[in-house]
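Hello again,

I reread your note about wanting to compare the complex against the isolated chains. To keep things tidy I'm splitting this into two emails, and this first one only covers the full assembly. Below are the input lines as submitted, including protein chains and any nucleic acid or small-molecule components. They are followed by the predicted structure of everything together. The single-chain runs will come separately.
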Amino acid sequence: MWDQLADLYATYQSTIAFIGINSLLALSVYTTLSCGQLALGNAGFSAIGAYAAALLTMQAHWPFPLAILAAVAVPAVVAVPLGLPVLRIRGIFLAIATIGFGEVVRLGLVNWDYVNGAQGIVAIPQKTELWMIYLAVAAALFVLARLRGSKWGFALEAIREDEPAARTMGIATTRYKLAMLVLGAALAGLAGGFEAHFTFMVAPNGFGFGRVVDMLVYAVVGGSQIYWGPVVGAAFLTLLPEILREVAPLVGIEPGPLRLLVNGLVLLAVILFLPNGMVSLPRRIAEWRAARVAARSAA
Amino acid sequence: MGQQVVNGLFLGSIYALFALGYTLVFGVLDILNLAHAAVFMLASFVALTLVGRFHLHILLAMPLAVLFAGFLGLLLERVAFRPLRARADSNISGLISSLAMATVFEAVALEVWGPNISRFPFGTVPETQLDLLGAVVSRLQLTIVAVAVLLFLVLTWLVKATRLGREVRAVAESPRAARILGVDVNRAIAAAFFISSALGGAAGVLFGLAFNSISPDMGRSVELKGLAVIILGGMGSMPGAVLAGFALGLTEVFVTAYLGASWRDAVSFTGLFLILVLRPRGLFGAAALREA
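Full-complex prediction:
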């Protein structure tokens, strides 16, 4: 029994690690979504964290825990001067401006010879342990859980529902939005630092627009109304390719296209039928059932 | 110098066409259709298949591919946008559902045509070169610029002078008021999607012909550059999109020539970012009032 579990663990170690890393990334998008802001610069923040940590352990020989702290701190510091002008913009425009920021970070790294440009940094020592990733996920969930029902949590909800009204009520909207952007940047940087010291390498093209789309999809598919929704989404969508690899030969579609197709269809189904994500599925089923019972008793 | 200008105008005309469709949907619905680049890509593949497998002439294959793209637009509107229209956060959920459709389209292309770069058969377009004020121009390049300008003029006429155009503009102003005045709102929005996607498809076919390289991920870079173009031109402004498209094409060619190819994209995204922070309405857009 234990041997089998050990085997299973050895086979899926990387998948388990990525569930945690992707959860952190999904939570980093959730932080800004929780006050109604669609900010998509998180691939850039993640890249900054990954590069900062990798350079510190490899060039400056910092101990790993300190390098990870830097992976949290550097993107968080960058987020402040970014957020002050950018958070004045709302809705789609904020999304576009932050996508622009992410691309500028990526292209800056491509053109930075010290970090090998497009090839990226290789041979990073593997220092990330699974327990570190999951400790970080638990800590992030704890903080976000404590926000709910607090003065902060209510302020964020007010901003999400109606920003001008929240401002009229005396809520310092910019300060709250900035704080959530900084928190998101810190989480994304943390994930980047872990990832760099797990996969041995970082390259700019791992932090492109596609990556931030993935993060958004985790958060939306899981559910962006409650703090643990993004983790559910990240876990489901990180496991999905493993399952599809087994299924692909049965349906006669190559695994690559099949994964894209299922990802797209899952996202579409969620946004159309479960706007609050997979975590709202039990309640939706109960509602449907109640409606059927009501219809039957009426007839 | 003259050669750079010619190359820039040629590249710019493709960006302009792509961005015209992008900005049309944004102007009407305030929604970013992130599947626009996937339509661009699929139209290019369809033209390729019509020419390569069914041996149609490109002058016949292109309109068919553009029509196909238009129908993809209708499909997008029906599946990804119409069901969400009543929701309060429809501009963010619409962005996400269009992303889902883009993923599905890309999966289809990957399964049908494979991940590798496909090319038009040799001789699809005549390779004649002309001399224009000291710059070498191929007939294809001239045709592409001409088609782009022609489509822009047709679109402007359509939006400004026809009944359909008036209906689309009325819906852009206020869907509710338009409905009260007897406009079929769903039909007007569907028409906007058809036109928008057809323009995106035309840009895709021209892009495929111009660079003779078609792959399932060819839309990705154009998608983000298209964003830069519509922001620069002012969201929803059609002349703005065209001018900004040409401006981006010229800038890219000159940056490539004087700073190197790796800086080309950095310049466009830095520009995009600065414009959004300093002058969010873009160069030609009108200031938005309360956006709620």
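For quick reference: The CA atoms of residues 230 and 241 of chain B lie 5 Å apart.

B.
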